[in-house]
Every structure is written in C-alpha cells, then in structure tokens.
Write a structure and sequence with these properties.
It contains 16 helices and twelve strands. β8, α12 and β9 form a beta-alpha-beta unit. The structure holds 6-O-phosphono-beta-D-fructofuranose.
Length: 404
C-alpha cells in the first residue's frame, strides 16, 4: 500500500455537481484499494442545526454574522476530522463544501499543511441544467417545508454565494472542471500531487452503471416507411410500450430522457406509469436527424424523385448532409451535449433510460462503443429490443436484449 496521502478540497456554487463528484471519486478510489472518506459540510450542518434554521436563504447571507460563525465552525470541525483521518489509515480526504471565499480557502491551506492539497472547482452555468437540478434539490427534506417558495429560496442562496465567490487562482494546486462536460478547464500544480494521473482520468471519464437505450416503439411513419415527421405510435407501438413498462417495472428509473417528438414521449409515458417516481425530460438534443427537404418522404419517393440525393447519401451516409437538414456527422455535438445533460441530471441514480430514435441511438451507441464513422449509420437499432450499456472503469458491457 502506498504511504502517500492527499487532501482534495472541492469548491463551487450550490448545484454544480460537487457532492456527486465527491462520491464518484471516493467510489473509484475505493475500487483501486485507496482508502478515501468524504467530509461534507452540508451534512454536518444538518446534524448540528435544526433544518428549519438552515433552509432559508438568509442563513447564507454574509451579513448574517451569527450564521457565518456557525458555518466557519462546521468547516473547521470537518478540517479537523479530515486531518485526523489522514493521520490514521486514511489516504485521501475529500472536503465537500462551496468554499467560495478565498479567505476560507486560505485557512484550509494553512491548517491542512501536513500533506499535499488539491482544490477542485466545479463550474457549470447551463441554465437548463441548473433549473432541472434545482427541481431535484427542492425535493430534499431541507426544502420540502418551504413548499412553493423552495426554488426561489434556493436561487437566493446561490446568489448569496455568488456575491462572495472568487474562482481558484492563487491557490498552490488546483483543477477547474466543467462538471457538465467532464472537461478540465484549467489546472495548476506547484507541489507533487499523489494519485494525480488516476484522479485526472476519473474526472474526465463519462461513467454509466446501467444505460437502457431504447428506440421508440412502432410509429405510423415507421409503418409507411416514412422518415422524420412527428407521427404518433401505432396500436402495435402502444402494445410494445406497455411491454417495455412491464419489463422495467422492477428497475428503479428516476428519469427517462426523450426527444421532443410524440413517438418517444408516448413510449416513455407508458414506461413511466409503471414506475413509482419517474420524470420524463424531453431534450432537443435527442430529436431525430433532420432530413431537411426529404422530411416525411418514404425512401422509395426519395429514390424516385430525388435520385441524386439517394445516391449521394448511399455513397457516404455518415457525412451526407440532407439539403436544409443534417448528417450523422453534424449531429455529433448535440448528441454529446444531450448525453452530458442526461448523465448530469441522473447523477444520483444507477439506472438511466433514454428513449431515442434510430439515428440518435446509433450516435449514442457510438459514443460508448468504438465504431468506424462509415459503420455508425448502419448500427442495428431494432424496436423490439433495447441496448443495455455499462461503461465504468472496471466494466464494459453492450447487450441487445428482448423485452417482450
Ligand atoms: O425511419 C425511421 C428514422 O428514424 C427516420 O426518421 C430517420 O430519418 C431514419 O430513421 C434514420 O435512419 P437512416 O439514417 O438509416 O436513414
């Protein structure tokens, strides 16, 4: 066992994915046999103080000096706990808090000076994600009591932190990460940081424990062999959706991500009905490939009326851009964005479900499974089966399963 030790100190505004990152890092380090513990200021605060006292935004105002004092005290207790953990058998102590103020971080650096210390700042300013994350946060007991004022209070709390927020700059060692994209924005290290390469790799990897990738069930256009459009499900499609709901009823699905098209939303709705607490989030990023001037046509009509398009697409399907539409290649950035959004929102759960379309699911599959570009538009995406994907550091699985 290595005798190296490390403090990881998280920072970032509320709802930026710090606690999820802390858990992800702890689990990944544990799997590598590195003893790691999280010291979370929010959790400690909730054990010391009645929830009613800390749920209101005023508790976080820098003008509330009594509350400020309490919060600093809690930070200090966690610092002491972290120090004594590393003094004993612990190898990595993760301090999870906003740590928005430079002054607090200076105290941390000064007090935790017996081992290297690395700050990690989580940054993410995507409004849509923030909005959806807040909807999740306010389900916690801390906010439930605020009823319809919960979201407003939480936003006010964020504003209070924003007023005192200074990004990492002068600290000796840090990584600034876009916590939505899992992308490092900036890094600096003045000291030798143990476990650095492993840590870096964990930070930028999209991990998924169970992704159920489903194609919407049979639609009217599928029956007519028409592309695009926004047609509803057929009677067979509704039956298939019921079978999917039945198949997944024992799995806990918190979110189902769909496109904005009726066929994916209706498939998801039927699955959702068999779940206890499930939300559908429709993302524009998962809308089917836009076939431009060919939308709503059958392949036969395209071949007959626009043979040049049919031929050109057939010759290079991945790169061919439909006039006024898209290609597989041009869809790639939005698919990546959709995957990042879905994973960020679903970050507390083990199971994630996406109900997409033929071309969309091919692109999602190719995000995890290496395929030559030429082969991506031909990946098999049937409607009577789904893909179960696991992609973690220790396990890769792609299974095509029947649900009927
Ligand atoms: O046919 C169903 C469909 O989802 C169409 O809406 C879409 O244009 C097509 O599949 C994409 O598949 P391909 O790239 O093979 O034409």
């Amino acid at each position: 066992m290595s005798d190296e030790k490390l403090y990881i100190v998280l920072m970032g505004l509320p709802a930026r994915g710090k606690s999820t990152l802390a858990v992800r890092l702890r689990d990944a380090f544990h799997k590598s046999g590195i003893t790691t513990r999280i010291f979370n200021n929010g959790n400690l605060r909730r054990t010391y103080l009645p929830i009613g006292e800390t749920s209101r935004s005023e508790f976080y105002s820098s003008e509330n000096s009594a509350a400020m004092e309490l919060r600093e005290k809690i930070a200090r207790i966690n610092m002491e706990k972290a120090k004594s953990y590393l003094c004993k058998s612990g190898q990595i102590a993760i301090l999870d808090a906003t740590n928005a103020r430079r002054k607090r971080r200076a105290v941390i650096e000064k007090y935790l000076n017996d081992h290297p210390l690395l700050f990690i700042e989580c940054v993410n300013d995507d409004e849509e994600i923030l909005h959806l994350s807040i909807q999740e946060k306010i389900k916690l007991p801390e906010f439930v009591r605020l009823k319809d004022k919960a979201a407003k209070e939480f936003l006010k709390r964020i504003d209070y932190y924003r007023m005192i927020y200074t990004p990492l700059k002068v600290e000796r060692n840090y990584i600034r990460i876009d916590s939505l994209q899992n992308m490092i924005i900036e890094e600096k290290h003045s000291d030798v940081i143990p476990f650095y390469e492993t840590l870096r790799d964990y930070l930028v990897t999209d991990e998924v424990k169970n992704l159920f990738l489903i194609r919407h069930t049979e639609s009217e256009y599928n029956l007519e062999n028409r592309i695009g459009g926004d047609s509803p499900l057929t009677a067979k499609g509704h039956k298939q959706a019921l079978a999917l709901g039945q198949f997944f009823k024992k799995k806990k699905i918190s979110y189902i991500f769909t496109s904005r098209k009726i066929r994916t939303m209706d498939t998801a709705r039927t699955i959702c009905k068999r779940q206890d607490d499930c939300r559908i989030v429709s993302l524009k990023e998962f809308d089917e490939i836009n076939a431009g001037i060919c939308e709503k046509m059958t392949y036969e009509q395209i071949e007959k009326n626009m043979p040049h398009i049919f031929k050109k697409r057939g010759a290079d399907k991945y790169h061919y851009v439909y006039p006024s539409g898209e290609s597989y290649e041009t869809m790639k950035p939005r698919i990546t964005e959709g995957i990042k959004k879905a994973f960020f929102l679903n970050r507390h759960a083990d199971n994630i479900m996406i109900v997409g379309h033929q071309a969309i699911n091919r692109m999602i599959l190719s995000h995890f499974l290496y395929r030559r570009e030429d082969d991506v538009p031909y990946i098999f995406v049937p409607q009577d089966r789904f893909y179960h994907i696991v992609s973690t550091h220790n396990k890769k699985l792609f299974e095509l399963k029947r649900y009927e």
